[in-house]
Design a protein that fits this description.
Blueprint (H helix, E strand, L loop, with lengths): L1 H18 L8 E4 L7 E3 L2 E3 L1 H12 L7 E2 L2 H8 L5 E7 L8 E9 L2 E6 L9 H5 L4 E4 L3 H8 L5 E4 L2 H10 L5 E4 L3 H6 L9 E9 L2 E7 L4 H16 L2 H9 L14
Parallel strand pairs: 1-4, 1-5, 8-9
Antiparallel strand pairs: 2-3, 5-12, 6-12, 7-10, 7-11
Helix pairs in contact: 2-8
C-alpha cells in the first residue's frame, strides 16, 4: 500500500507540473529600432508595438527584457532551435513555414519613396524595375516582397537607416516603407527629415504585422500570447495605446509618448 501510495503521489505531482501554465519563461524577446513601433529610449523599449508586447508580458507574469538587434541578426536568431519572439514582423505565406504568429498587431500600407523633387518615372511596378537601384534591408519584408515580385535591381543593406541615407545621397533611386512608419522612422535619423522624401507610384502591399515566434517555442506559450493580445483589444487597452501613439494623426511623438 505504501508503494502504491507513493506511486499515485508521484503521478499526481507529474500531472500538476504538466498542467502548470508555461507563461513564456526563458523566452528570448527581440525587436529592432523601428520607430514609431519599437525603439530604445534611455535604455528602455518604447513605441506602439513595444508597449503592446510589454503589456502582454506583464499579464503573463514575465520579467524578460526586450532585446534589440539589427533586423538580419534577430531574424537569424529566430530561426534557431530555441524559444524566441521577434516583433514587429509582417506575416507572409513564406514566413508561415519558419515561424509561428500572434496578432495581428497593426496594418500598414507600403509605398516606394524617392528623394523629393527628383524626376523619376514610377507609375507602375514595372517602371520601378527599370530603375538603377532600390534600397532594401536584408531579409526584411520589403526585401522578400520585391524579390517575390521579380525585382532584380535591389541594393541590399543591413538596416533601413542605411537605406534612407543612401536615398538622401542619391545612391539608390527608391526605398519601400509603410506609410505609418515613414515620418517617425526618418524623423529619428540624424541629418534627415521626412520632408526630404515623397511617396511615388502605386501601393506595393497592405501587410498585417504580427509578433513572430520560433518553431521551438511551446504551443502553450504562443496560445497564451494570443489570448493576452485578444484580451487587451477586448478591454480597450490596445486602442488606448494606439491613440496615445498618435499614429493615426501622423505627428512625431515626444519623449516617453508610448510608455
Amino acid at each position: 500500500m505504501e508503494l502504491n501510495g507513493r506511486f499515485i503521489f508521484s503521478l499526481t505531482l507529474i500531472s500538476c507540473l504538466l498542467c502548470t501554465p508555461v507563461r513564456g519563461a526563458g523566452l528570448h524577446v527581440m525587436s529592432e529600432d523601428y520607430p514609431p513601433f519599437s525603439h530604445q529610449e534611455d535604455g528602455r523599449a518604447v513605441g506602439f508595438c513595444a508597449a503592446i508586447v510589454q503589456r502582454i508580458m506583464d499579464r503573463l507574469g514575465m520579467d524578460e527584457k526586450i532585446v534589440f538587434y539589427p533586423w538580419a541578426r534577430a531574424y537569424m536568431r529566430l530561426m534557431e532551435d530555441a524559444p524566441a519572439a521577434l516583433f514587429p514582423m509582417v506575416l507572409s505565406p513564406e514566413r508561415k513555414v519558419f515561424f509561428r504568429f500572434v496578432g495581428p498587431v497593426f496594418t500598414d500600407t507600403v509605398y516606394f519613396y524617392k528623394r523629393r523633387g527628383r524626376a523619376l518615372d514610377v507609375t507602375s511596378l514595372e517602371a520601378a524595375m527599370r530603375l538603377k537601384a532600390i534600397g532594401v534591408t536584408r531579409d526584411d519584408f520589403y526585401h522578400q516582397l520585391l524579390v517575390q515580385k521579380g525585382f532584380e535591381n535591389l541594393d541590399i543593406s543591413s538596416s533601413q537607416t542605411q537605406d534612407f541615407r543612401k536615398l538622401a545621397q542619391g545612391r539608390v533611386d527608391l526605398v519601400p516603407m509603410g506609410e505609418l512608419a515613414l515620418p517617425h522612422f526618418v524623423g529619428c535619423i540624424d541629418g534627415l527629415d521626412p520632408e526630404m522624401f515623397e511617396r511615388v507610384g502605386p501601393v506595393i502591399a497592405r501587410p498585417e504585422v504580427y509578433i513572430a515566434f520560433s518553431l521551438a517555442t511551446p504551443d502553450e506559450v504562443v496560445r497564451q500570447w494570443q489570448q493576452a493580445l485578444d484580451e487587451l483589444k477586448a478591454e480597450g487597452v490596445y486602442r488606448t495605446i494606439m491613440n496615445r501613439s498618435l499614429l493615426l494623426r501622423g505627428e512625431t511623438p515626444g519623449k516617453g509618448q508610448w510608455e
